[in-house]
Write a structure and sequence with these properties.
heterodimer; A: alpha/beta; 4-stranded antiparallel beta sheet; 12 strands; B: Rossmann fold; 6-stranded mixed beta sheet; 9 helices; 24% strand; globular
């Protein structure tokens, strides 16, 4: 597909990011962009490096971690920057929605006061104005009777309401980028959909971009414009979310997509309880990486070159990129590799 | 013939809160009954009561192969309990981090004074786990391998029913389908009954025979799986199913 329009500069540009914790190379050269106002999903299994990548962006790497590479927020280099730099960024340029709402809400202050304090931390406004904005923000994330609820303590909210309040807190100062780390894993599916709907709507209203860190493929497919799939600390595939999950080009993404039971809008598999495509083994421990492609030991298409050399991420048309030596030999879509057979 | 598990008028109360409110259902041998509903609807309390880990209110009946569980105490309760076993969500949390995998798998046999010799390797092979891992500890295994060990341990006493509480939701996506296939295969081989608690509607549709929908402590609808997904009768069920994701076409 031709795209004659020059893309707008990314709000976040990550280039060759490496994070080593102790002696463990956990993130090994990750590059991706997040465009203004768009949602990018960072997808991976445990140990893939997705949370560490997010923490590096947020300036919250674990103690003793070593960072290299580049993280640019609106063009400003922030990789490894200190608390003084991040203090300037929080709220207006960068915001964080964690997995556990109670991790950011103080248990002893009314929710509205916490939102108002966030407003006054970046803007010289009166208490009354901060208060008004706090109530409006709670209203904006769908909390009914917001003026009264603003006076409640976090524990008086349900889990879903608390997560809405955290979204309101993240959005209240109009940040350019929100990083959400598994923001809904603790919630049940119905509440999860509501919360992500709220996040998408309010994000669109303020123009904020989103980096959504998740292990849930369906969530990423439903709520992100672009997807970056990590495996063992590297990007194995990235591109438009519809393409990455609809027509994956890396054997790893293909195996993930193929192994899911059909969604409710698709036909169920033929026959009662047909075995799902499955691959043996598990993701490698970052301490015990194979030489060559990290997925090679589990890949049905692995060739000698895959076991010797790590493949580079190579872009194709419409910004769909894949790191695979065998990408030219893959069926299209690559899920055909796994369809109807259990490889184990 | 009696169903494997027959629950009638089950009531569970925590102080003045009724978590399970007159719930009735049954599970046959070789059958998966999925129990679905939002967080806090009483699914897990139901499971705990079925496992005998939580005492239901007077008047509740939990019959296992015709035997009334709530009337039993002491050694007779322990003997009956060997026939149904739980598999939990988090495989690491359900195994003692200091106990070697082989010992963890055969521990139920030692507790019930059954022969142990050779059983670890046999059970590990049954669940597709290399018996060479018997000497390892949980942190040396992947999440999928740990869950296989948890299933092997649940099978040690040759139970007839497994209570599966979100058995794959904590697992990495690339190992999940292998565990789903294993559970289906074990059920077909041994005629196991499964009480399957699950939030993932696509997985429920793929694995269950019948589905019971819980809301606020009550079962609002029970139906064969095809029927439930094709034509849910209750508005609550329709809402619950509408929350699923759509996936881009392949």
């Amino acid at each position: 597909m031709k795209n004659p329009v020059t893309p707008t500069p990314p709000v976040l540009a990550v280039r060759d990011l490496r994070v080593t914790v102790g002696a463990v190379p956990a993130v090994r050269g990750v590059s991706f962009d997040v465009r203004p106002g768009r949602a990018t999903a960072l997808v991976g299994e445990s140990g893939a490096g997705k949370s560490l990548t997010a923490k590096a962006i947020l300036g919250l790497p674990p103690h003793g971690a070593r960072l290299s590479g580049s993280i640019r927020l609106d063009g400003e280099e922030i990789a490894g920057a200190g608390a003084d730099v991040y203090r300037r960024l929080w709220g207006r340029r960068l915001a964080y929605v964690p997995q556990d709402a109670l991790a950011v809400l103080s248990p002893v202050h009314p929710v509205g006061d916490q939102l108002a304090a966030a407003v006054r931390s970046v803007a010289r406004v009166s208490r009354a104005e901060a208060r008004r904005r706090a109530v409006a923000a709670l209203d904006g994330v769908g909390i009914a009777d917001a003026a009264r609820r603003a006076r409640a303590l976090p524990h008086e909210f349900s889990g879903g309401m608390r997560q809405r309040a955290v979204i309101a807190l993240a959005l209240i100062n109009g940040p350019g980028l929100i990083v959400a780390d598994e923001p809904t894993t603790a919630l049940d599916p119905r509440v999860r959909e509501q919360i992500l709907g709220v996040l998408t709507d309010s994000r669109r209203a303020t123009g904020a971009a989103l980096l959504l860190v998740t292990h849930d493929l369906d969530l990423a497919a439903a709520h992100a414009d672009r997807a970056v799939v990590l495996y063992a600390g590297r990007v194995t595939e990235s591109g438009p979310a519809r393409r990455v999950f609809g027509a994956p080009r890396s054997p790893y993404t293909a195996c993930l997509v193929a192994s899911l039971p059909p969604t409710l809008d698709a036909e169920p598999l033929e026959g009662p309880r047909t075995p799902l495509p499955a691959i043996g083994g598990g993701p490698p421990a970052p301490t015990d990486l194979p030489p060559g492609c990290a997925f090679a030991p589990r890949c049905p298409l692995a060739a000698p070159v895959c076991r010797d050399t790590e493949p580079a991420l190579t872009g194709t048309e419409d910004q769909h990129a894949v790191a695979c030596h065998r990408s030219a030999d893959l069926p299209v879509p690559a899920t055909a590799l796994f369809d109807g057979k259990a490889v184990s | 013939m009696n169903p494997l598990l027959d629950v009638t008028d089950l009531v569970v109360r925590y102080d003045d809160h009724t978590a399970v409110d007159h719930v009735s259902f049954h599970v046959d041998a070789g059958e998966t009954l999925a129990l679905i509903g939002e967080s806090g609807c009483g699914k897990s309390s139901t499971a705990l009561a079925v496992l005998g880990l939580l005492r239901p209110e007077h008047g509740s009946s939990v019959r296992f192969a015709g035997q009334e569980l709530t009337a039993l105490r002491g050694s007779r309760l322990r003997a009956l309990r060997t026939r149904f076993q739980p598999v939990f969500q988090d495989p690491y949390a359900s195994l003692d981090p200091r106990t070697r995998i082989g010992d963890a798998i055969t521990e139920p046999l030692r507790v019930h004074r059954r022969p142990v010799a050779g059983r670890a390797a046999e059970l590990m092979e049954l669940v597709g786990l290399d018996p060479a891992y018997a000497d390892r500890r949980p942190h040396e295994l992947s999440g999928g391998q740990c869950q296989r060990a948890g299933i092997a341990r649940a099978l040690a006493l040759e139970p007839r029913l497994l209570v599966l509480d979100e058995p794959v939701s904590a697992l990495d996506p690339s190992v999940r389908s292998g565990i789903v296939n294993l559970l289906t295969d074990l059920q077909d081989r041994f005629g196991l009954g499964y009480l399957f608690i699950c939030h993932d509607m696509a997985l429920v549709r793929h694995t269950a025979h019948r589905v019971a929908v819980m809301s606020a402590g009550r079962i609002v609808e029970t139906a064969p799986v095809r029927e439930l997904f094709a034509a849910p009768r209750e508005p609550y069920t329709r809402d619950l199913l509408a929350a699923h994701h759509r996936r881009p076409a392949r």
